[in-house]
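Exam review. A common question shows you a sequence with its structure tokens and asks you to describe the fold in words. Practice with the pair below. Do the first one on your own.
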Amino acid sequence: MRRNRAGWAAALVLVLYSVLVSYSAAHHEPWRDEAQAWLIVRDLPLPAVFQQMVYEGTPALWHMILLPFAKQGAPYAAEAAVHILLAIAAVALLLRRGPFPLWFKALFVFSYYMSYEYAVIARNYNLTVLLLFALAALCHPRTV
């Protein structure tokens, strides 16, 4: 019974986080460096995208995730949608597999970095958070 209650509480935290991040992203004015990733993958052929990464200073994973959406003619808002989904996945992974108490995970999830910097501002930082949480979950299996 107690585990079921904790599961519902974690689901509530995830839903509240999803609503907060979606609302914030809908009212966020994109910055130049956020739009640049979208413009690179929209306007350049694939070999030129990899050549451009020399000047970007970041790995190409974020650009490769955006590439199919941009090449298919999706609107620029698709970048924010993809970014939000990755942020929600990272938080879901933390809530499900994190070794901390729920109150601590909730405080962390609603902190500035997790709820705005890594979730609303569409840059590649979100991938780092998601991949670090996934690596931690793989390295420290926890019985749930």
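Now try the second one, then compare your answer with the model answer below.
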Amino acid sequence: INLGYRAAESLWRTAIPGDTNLDNTVDLADFAAFAAAWKAGDCDGSNTCRKADIDQSGGVDYNDLRILAENWLSGIVH
């Protein structure tokens, strides 16, 4: 189980910043995950919040939104 988790974690870490669903694009599903985590602000250990915390600051904040937005257009047009 740990090996599988590390493999998944490795995939997430190499994903496009803002690609929370690992489909190699930054799309509406990624924005939905980000928006759901934004309201909570501080990550509580949930997978969605952790992935939405793009800058790994411990919270989902304006800098995460900036990074997501920077990758949004390239994600949508693919």
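Model answer, second protein: Residues 62-77 form the longest helix (16 residues). The two ends are 33 Å apart (CA to CA). Full marks require stating both points clearly.
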